[in-house]
Description:
By secondary structure, this protein is of the alpha/beta class. The chain has helices at about 20-30, 45-55, 70-85, 105-135, 155-175, 205-210, 220-235, and strands at about 10-15, 35-40, 60-65, 90, 135-140, 180-190, 245.
Amino acid sequence: xxxxxxxxxxxxxxxxxxxxxxxxxxxxxxxxxxxxxxxxxxxxxxxxxxxxxxxxxxxxxxxxxxxxxxxxxxxxxxxxxxxxxxxxxxxxxxxxxxxxxxxxxxxxxxxxxxxxxxxxxxxxxxxxxxxxxxxxxxxxxxxxxxxxxxxxxxxxxxxxxxxxxxxxxxxxxxxxxxxxxxxxxxxxxxxxxxxxxxxxxxxxxxxxxxxxxxxxxxxxxxxxxxxxxxxxxxxxxxxxxxxxxxxxxxxxxx
Length: 254
Ligand SMILES: NC(=O)c1ccc[n+]([C@@H]2O[C@H](COP(=O)([O-])OP(=O)(O)OC[C@H]3O[C@@H](n4cnc5c(N)ncnc54)[C@H](O)[C@@H]3O)[C@@H](O)[C@H]2O)c1
């Protein structure tokens, strides 16, 4: 049955940024498809975790800051200690910042790359060490259409560059580890309604620009990214690796 290829029963899946808009939706999709979830985030939202309890998912929540250089190893060791396996890693945690180049200080630049790129690099490295032993694994990195086009009107040069780096990390790992049966893909979302886009009042006019420049005329919903994530984390995409799948309502097609 074709639909069975979207099922991932008892696969062990780590999702970072799981208390965020997209991370939660992706974890929900993987949980519904049968995965055992290890959720992580620097903040804990009890209402989110209660929803997963109601749905009877098997999950653990580990609170932590992914920029702590020790955290990736601790997280992956937790998965191996508890389940003896790690099948899926979804790097979804991220931050955005709208700062003009002239005012971009080193501290903000370092933070942007620590969260959006270096932690993803480290989590991929630790996962690949384990997945290579097993000769099987699947990694999904959440990049952005901002890693492909310089969207506007908001100035976000470092964010765009960090997401571009995530896309190239994805392609490089896909090429290097295909022989170890590890697939590595990314999703490049367009504008998605999540807390990341809770704009301050003075910037709310950006919404009109974003919608006007999106051919579909609206922002996306987190579950419209989660369905793509399930595809890339399941056997449904067994011949897909090194792909940056754009989910943007057509924004980058113009
Ligand atoms: N929302 C969009 O329009 C959009 C578009 C393209 C790409 N993205 C990307 O999608 C991903 C998810 O974003 P979202 O929209 O769900 O945002 P969100 O703000 O709702 O969620 C991000 C989550 O990451 C967590 N996080 C941030 N820094 C962390 C750290 N140092 N350690 C641990 N956790 C940390 C936050 O606590 C939060 O729960 C991000 O990588 C973002 O860059 C978002």
